[in-house]
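Trying the structure run again after the queue cleared.
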Amino acid sequence: MDLDRESAALPLGDLFAEGPFPPHHPGCFGCGPSNPSSPRMVFERRGNTVRAAFSFDERHQGAPGVAHGGMVAAALDEASGSILLPLRQPAVTVKLDVDFRAPARLGREFVVTSWLTASQRRKLFIESELTDGDDVVATGRAIFVKVEQEHFVNLGANPGELFSSHR
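Done. Tokens:
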């Protein structure tokens, strides 16, 4: 990426308590309860990390018995974006690099974890990892760029919908 840095998690502050987050939007692919294709990830803050346990099923299949690589990347992106909730900072993904290490088999319980590694002006550098037990399935390195909430309102969100309802 653009910045040499260690992958230690930076503090997420105290604006958002430990524990589970509500879905950030009902129709979200990753966490939305109203999206029929969602793996229904429920993220929670654990110290300076964010994590969720979930499974892929036939709706997410690529090769027989395996989640599509795009679904794995989506899980890493969703985890990276969930770092924004405790930071209370609207931002958008501008880059996501994924290293695939093992097949993500359908029906297994995965844990996806993310952490903030650096912040530089408007850029947030976030790393993520998808595991199946002790095995690392994929890792991600993302850059998000901070935006005003109006960015999402202009795309159809209601004012305050994405960042004001989370406590």
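The first strand starts at residue 19 and ends at 20. Worth checking whether this holds up in the mutant runs.
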